[in-house]
Structures are given as structure tokens and as C-alpha cells.
Design a protein that fits this description.
Blueprint: H1 2-8, H2 25-36, H3 39-47, H4 51-59, H5 68-81, E1 90-92, E2 101-105, E3 110-115, E4 120-123, E5 128-132, E6 142-147, E7 150-158, E8 164-166, E9 177-180, E10 185-186, E11 190-193, H6 196-209, E12 215-220, H7 230-241, E13 245-253, E14 265-269, H8 276-288, E15 294-297, H9 304-310, E16 316-324, E17 332-335, H10 336-352
Helix pairs in contact: 4-6, 6-10
Length: about 350
Amino acid sequence: MIGKILWNAKLTTQDNPIKPAMQNTWFTFYKLIFLVLSRTQVINYFCKVDFKLLETLCRINATSGDEVGMKQFLLNYVNKNSVGWVTRPQIIEGGGFQDNLMLVFGEPQTAYYAHIDSVGFTARYQNQLITIGSPDAENGDILVGEDNHGLIECAIEIDKNGNTFHDFKRTIEPGTPLTYKHNFYKSTDRVTSPYLDNRLGVFALLHLAEELENGVLVFSTYEEHGGGSVGYLASYLFSKFTISQSIIVDVTWVTEGIQLGHGPVVSLRDAYIPRRKFIRKIISHLDDSSLVYQKEVEASGGSDGSELQRSALPIDWCFIGVPVNNPHTAKEEANIFDIIRLVALLKTLSIKV
């Protein structure tokens, strides 16, 4: 009971008051625990969220179109760890699915999507760089990669016209993908790293996998550079398992209405508008479980949910994710408690939806 309360506890003074149903003897005890233990100790003791896994995921280079390394890591991880999960999944990958990966648990009704690709750069000619997705780079940011001549580490140079170059001592083979250099830092309440978008979504689904009984975890590709994979993955799941509802697990931006430390985000709309009946269903489950979350309303932006809405399939979808500062830069930043709450939220929804 205490563990559950701590997963869902409102830990900042800006959060809404805790619901009266939680005001009981156990909750009084929980408050005493917080007077004695630091936030870090509470996380380590009760929540058992493996942030070393997140760091490992952030180390893997997987720009749009070059996701094979991430897929192979996930396959190895599943084969090694699924023996200890509540349900061992059926693995769907290989021919016809490119570098996408799907894990089918039990008798699924809901699919959970997290894209495994990231933004980055492609080497052009001489020392020119062109973008993969929409990285927000600064002069001096360090990029890494590898071509047939060896390992690459170089700095970005941006001229007054916004053109992007690298300073590597030799010509990089044209077409070589480059990513921000790994630089992962975890403090008491923050994580800072390149590629929290969307390693956080992948991280959350891997924790969900430990207890998931019925559902499909979908690790998709190409999201950062135009999409293209979710349509045929959803079509397969619809025809094979009649799955008509999906949760998109990704990151979103900090704005005037969305803040770090106030919980994961449920998007009511972005450039696309999910069916309101399904969104109300999700929110009702979250409220009934006294979970902490934020509601987002935006006119722009998109996710794998955009592809679902553009498809010819009758699939409901809802975006749920962690807010981040400095999106698509070499120093994306997220709140540890938002991440933990996201995992708790997904585990709750997996039972109810």
C-alpha cells in the first residue's frame, strides 16, 4: 500500500491537493516517511526504477532510418529479462517489419507505441551536414559516428546563414549518420542527456513489460523524420488481434501550461485531435486511481498518433508522456518523479483499458 501511494504521491507544492480518499492512516505514515527519507532514498527503496537502463538506452545511436542497433539491443534485453516477467511475450519482428519490434502479451486489446529513432545529422559533401528530423543544435555541440574509415568525433559549426558544418580533420563519407555525443547526468530530481526523446518512452515500456498481462508493446521507427512505420504496424495489429485503441508513449515540451515535476502529460490535442470519448475514458481511469498528471492542449506538434489518425483504420489513440526542457538539443532535461509517475500511470492503465 505504501509503495503504491509513493508512486502516485504529489511531491510538489504546486500540485493539486491529494484526494480525500487517500487521507488515511497509511497516508499519514507516508508523510512521516518523507520527513525521514530523501526523495532519492524513497525512489531507490520503493520504486525500483532502473535509471542505468535509461543511460544505456541514451548511449545507443539510432537516428531515423538507422534504428537497427536499438532494435537489436531490445531483442537481446527481452530475451534475457522476459523470463522474470509476469507474462512472456510473443516477439514479432523480421521480414515485413523492417527495424520495428512488437511484443504481444496475453490477449491484447491495447497497443502501446514508443518510437526508437532520434534526430541527428547526415554528412553531405566536404564538411557539410544536413539534419535528420529537427535537431536544435548549437555551435560547438559534439557529434559522434562511424564510417568505413573509422570512428568520428567532431564539433558543429553553424554560419551566419544557419548552414551547418563539422570540423572533422578528414572528409566523412557522405550519408554517414551523426548523433550528439553521449553525456548522461542524473541528479537528485533531474536527468539530463541527449535523446531523452524518445529513450524515455522506450524505458517506460520496458518497465511496463515486467507486469503487463495483456497488451502489445510497439517499438516503432522513423517518427522523427516523417513517420511511415506506424500505419502498417497498426494495420497488422488490427487484422491479427482487432486492436482498436492505442497509447502513444513519447515526450512533450515544457510550456506555460506544462511544467517539470508536475507529473506526466496527457495530451488532449496537438496538430491532430484524438477522439474525445477515448480521452475521457483515459482521464476517468486516471482520476479514479488518484494519479498525478497534467493536461496538454496545443495547436501544433505530432507523434505516432498522427499516423494512426491519418490511417484508414478506426483506431482510438491517446498521447501520454514526460515533459522535457531543451527538446532536440544535446542537453534534454526531465524530472525523475515525472518518469516514475509515468511508469505507474502506464501500469495502472494496462489493467483498466
